[in-house]
Design brief:
This protein is mainly alpha-helical and 62 residues long. Helix 1 packs parallel to helix 3 and helix 2 runs parallel beside helix 3. It is flat. The mean pLDDT is 88.
Length: 62
């Protein structure tokens, strides 16, 4: 695995919070499109957006 792909994987992991809290099941048969950031800025934006979404979901649980 390249460092770029690993960085994308780590940034994208935080999206699992939303997926776990918003869905009853995960169906991988439909496929998954991994983001492919072209710049570090795009990678940071993916991370920030996933974290914001996860935080929003946790706040709604209270």
């Amino acid at each position: 695995m390249t460092m770029g792909r690993l960085a994308t994987h780590v940034a994208n992991m935080f999206g699992w919070f939303s997926a776990t809290l918003e869905t009853d099941e995960l169906d991988f048969a439909g496929g998954y499109e991994e983001p492919k950031p072209a710049t570090n800025e795009e990678l940071v934006n993916i991370f920030d957006n996933k974290c914001r979404g996860g935080n929003r979901n946790f706040e709604e649980c209270e």
